[in-house]
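Methods, example record. To illustrate the input and output format used throughout this study, we show the complete record for SMI1/KNR4 family protein. The sequence lines were provided to the predictor; the line carrying structure tokens was produced by it.
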Amino acid sequence: MWTDTIEEIKARRAKRDRFLNSSCSTTHLERFQEEVTKLFNYKLPKEYIEFLSYINGIEYNGLVLYGVDGKITNDENTNQEVTGYIETNEIWYENEHQKAYMFFGDGNISWYCYDIKRDIYVELDKPSGSQVQEFQGFYHMIDYALSNSLI
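The corresponding predicted structure is encoded as:
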């Protein structure tokens, strides 16, 4: 399960006196959801919100899972590495084709997304944007991405 993988990453980083991001507060999560709805006209999946309430994004071994943007949290935890969901999706949305997806993270050669029209979680090839695989849900997708970061 993805929480076990995060705990493994946490243990590995602790050996080098590096730590993972803390969870995101309910207040910040509510503001974040409102801002995403206003900017992108969709509602974030509850599983993603639950993930953020566990850890506000993660960067490890080439994998980046996006968190709540600093403009929402007012950068309260300046010692944390958070790649913001809103800021990153605004960048990816400069390409009209990519507006069909919610981007939750990326790796060296992959994007981890939700295909809005098809109602399914997918891995896309980063250079081409072609679909690599589908996932049964958000947790399956991040579990796959996190597990691959341990290799």
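Annotations derived from this record:
The helical segments are 2-14, 26-40, 46-54, 70-73, 85-92, 138-149.
The chain has a mean pLDDT of 94.
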